[in-house]
Amino acid sequence: MAHIAGVDLPKDKRVIIGLTYIFGIGNSKSREILEKLKVDENTYVKDLNTEQEKAIRELVQNDYMVEGELRTKVAMDIKRLMEIGSYRGNRHKRGLPCRGQRTHTNAKTRRGRRGSSMKKR
């Protein structure tokens, strides 16, 4: 089982899919990484040899912001928005959608359960 950026990649999946289990790496970045290292994207994680695994690990750690570092950056960006009092920051403070979605109906997952209108009958 490959261990990259603090995440164990599932051994029964293809490498291109397995890399997406790392926070901050999606499909396109995964494909980009494999092209740089000339690793076939149809290779399974369990079939990677140690040199390929080591090369992927080093490339991800050196060239990409992933996992804890990225989570910290995102949290600090949101905190900055809240401190400067921007519209998006205020929406984050209130726990409302901040990308223009309607809230009159819908947005239940973001707004949470509301009081009196949700009484049991």
Largest sheet: 2 strands, antiparallel
Domain module count: 2
Task: Please work out how many helical segments DSSP would assign.
Answer: 6
**Outline type:** elongated
Radius of gyration (CA) equals 20 Å
CATH architectural arrangement of the largest domain: Orthogonal Bundle
Trace the largest sheet across and list its strands.
Answer: 1-2
Share of residues in helices: 40-55%
- Number-wise, the strands total 2
Task: Explain what this protein looks like in three dimensions.
Helices cover 49% and strands 3% of the residues. It has six helices and two strands, in the order E-E-H-H-H-H-H-H. The chain has helices spanning 15-18, 27-37, 50-63, 67-84, 87-94, 108-111; strands at 3-4, 7-8. Strands 1-2 form a two-stranded antiparallel sheet. A hairpin with a 2-residue loop joins strand 1 and strand 2. Helix 4 (67-84) packs across helix 5. It is elongated. The model has no long low-confidence stretch (mean pLDDT 90).
Give a brief description.
With 121 residues, this protein is mainly α.
Entry keywords:
Helicase, Ruva Protein, domain 3, 121 residues, 2 strands, 6 helices, 3% strand, two-stranded antiparallel sheet, mainly alpha, elongated
